[in-house]
Amino acid sequence: MKANETSFLPFLQGPKQFLVPIFQRRYSWEKKHCQRLWDDIMRIGANPGITSHFLGSIVYMQPGVGNISTVPEFLVIDGQQRLTTLSLLLSALGKAIVERDSDIGISPKQLSNYYLFNADEEGELRYKQLLTRHDKETLIQLLECREPADASHRLVENYAFFKAKLRSADLGVVFTGIKKLMVVDIALDPNHDNPQLIFDSLNTAGLALSQTDRIRNYVLIPKDPVFQKRLYEEYWFPMEQRFVSDRREFDWFIMHYLRLKTGQARLINGSIYE
């Protein structure tokens, strides 16, 4: 494992693609999380005395030796929520610059080519971040200024939240605040680091993993990518879709299933995974 403190925007620059693995949960930040991030950005952007603000860690791992691509690809183990939310904000900021004819020292094209797109690539390699099956197309459509079909509502709602904020905010202050964001860049060694243990321990400080999140990770993470994808698409994803309106019901389903299979009369919801 290698860890370095770095500014968030330079961290995104250059040809690269962050892939959210299929075992990760979908994008789940709510309006309150976006509001907190927005407040921090506006506060540090307006205060010359604050030179940096710690955003959190971004933990990733390069795929195995068989991966061949013109763009370096990294599997995101932790930091998906922050990466995705800031992509929404940067995209909305670029559009606000055009709509308000503002000059903040960077053009909308530069914002896109530096931080959202791999400008020289085509197809999916064009995007610096690809989400899971649930959310991938919605994020792509938003970045491309198209109306998402069958949209992931969290992404659409949070994008609309930032667009509304940017209609009246000082765009220069917003960009200054974003430039002050710092992350801990943590690169895992696939030969020595256990991504499942690291994922579980890091997520104790963020949005709590559901019991089904943890079971999914326990089952899928140790598998090779091809088998992992097959298990997810043929078994886990169809089952998960039945509970898309209320994830808590998925936890209860698993709890009752395990009670049936193990014969235990009582199984506490919080200890399903254990």
Description:
The protein has 274 residues and is of the alpha/beta class. The protein folds into two domains: 207 residues, no CATH class; 65 residues, no CATH class. The protein contains eleven helices and six strands. A six-stranded mixed beta sheet has the order 1-6-3-4-2-5. The longest helix is centred in the N-terminal third of the chain and has 21 residues. The chain is globular and about 65 Å long. The C terminus is likely disordered.
Biggest sheet descriptor = 6 strands, mixed
Helix-and-strand structural type = alpha/beta
Distance between the termini: 27 Å
Radius of gyration: 20 Å
Q: Tell me the strand percentage band.
A: 5-15%
Mean pLDDT: 86
- Ranges where pLDDT stays below 50 over 5 or more residues in a row are 267-274
Strand arrangement in the largest pleated sheet:
1-6-3-4-2-5
Please give the count of helices: 11
Number of DSSP-assigned strands: 6
- Fraction of helical residues: 40-55%
Number of domains: 2
Order of H and E elements: EHEHEEHHEHHHEHHHH
Shape: globular
Short précis:
The chain is built from 11 helices and 6 strands. The protein has helices at residues 8-12, 31-46, 80-100, 108-115, 136-143, 153-166, 171-179, 195-202, 211-220, 225-241, 247-262; strands at 2-7, 17-19, 53-61, 73-78, 129-130, 181-188. Strands 1-6-3-4-2-5 form a 6-stranded mixed β-sheet.
